[in-house]
């Protein structure tokens, strides 16, 4: 089943920590030909939390996933999300950008942090 997915930071961290569910999920999506994307925000978060000795593993993981940069359209949409959800849902700028990327690129957001994404115009999937 071919799908276009934006992989959130928490799933990438699980993969790097060799959590079975994450390894199985990403392997299955790659085998099935899904297109995997990552926001540059998640790249920042992964590099900021990278442990010593993980550089090669992180690079290999990011070689498999297409990065999406923040452009003006994504930035504007993220601003709309922040205005609407920052107080009611404690939405932070990183999650707003990830949600806006999902929306503007017409992707499905893959995350365990479903509560971080209250937007009704994006599809949020908890993979495990």
Considering the chains and any ligands shown, give keywords for the structure.
single chain, 128 residues, alpha/beta, Rossmann fold, 5 strands, 54% helix, 14% strand
Question: Would you write up a description of this structure?
Answer:
With 128 residues, the protein is of the alpha/beta class. It has one domain (4-125): Rossmann fold (3-Layer(aba) Sandwich). 54% of the residues lie in helices and 14% in strands. It is built from six helices and five strands. It has a five-stranded parallel beta sheet. The radius of gyration is 14 Å and the shape is globular.
SSE layout and pairing:
Layout: E1 4-7, H1 9-16, H2 20-31, E2 35-39, H3 40-49, H4 55-63, E3 66-68, H5 72-89, H6 93-104, E4 108-110, E5 123-125
Parallel strand pairs: 1-2, 1-4, 2-3, 4-5
Helix pairs in contact: 1-2, 5-6
**Strand segment count:** 5
End-to-end separation in angstroms reads 18 Å
Q: How much helix is in the residues?
A: 40-55%
Strand order of the largest sheet: 3-2-1-4-5
Low-confidence stretches: none
Number of domains: 1
Main beta sheet strand tally, sense and closure: 5 strands, parallel
Superfamily at the CATH H level?
A: 5'-nuclease
Mean pLDDT: 96
- CATH fold-level name: Rossmann fold
Number of helices: 6
Task: Describe, in short, the structure shown.
The chain is of the alpha/beta class and 128 residues long. The chain contains six helices and five strands. Helix 1 (9-16) packs across helix 2 (20-31).
């Amino acid at each position: 089943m071919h799908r276009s997915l934006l992989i959130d930071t928490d799933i990438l961290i699980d993969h790097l920590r060799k959590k079975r569910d994450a390894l199985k999920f990403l392997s299955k999506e790659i085998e099935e030909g899904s297109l995997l994307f990552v926001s540059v925000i998640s790249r920042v978060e992964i590099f900021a939390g990278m442990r010593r000795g993980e550089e090669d593993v992180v690079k290999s993981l990011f070689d498999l996933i297409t990065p999406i940069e923040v452009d003006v359209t994504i930035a504007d949409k993220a601003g709309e999300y922040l205005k609407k959800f920052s107080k009611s849902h404690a939405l932070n700028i990183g999650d707003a950008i990830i949600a806006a990327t999902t929306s503007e690129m017409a992707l499905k957001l893959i995350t365990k942090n479903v509560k971080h994404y209250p937007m009704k115009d994006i599809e949020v999937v908890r993979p495990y």
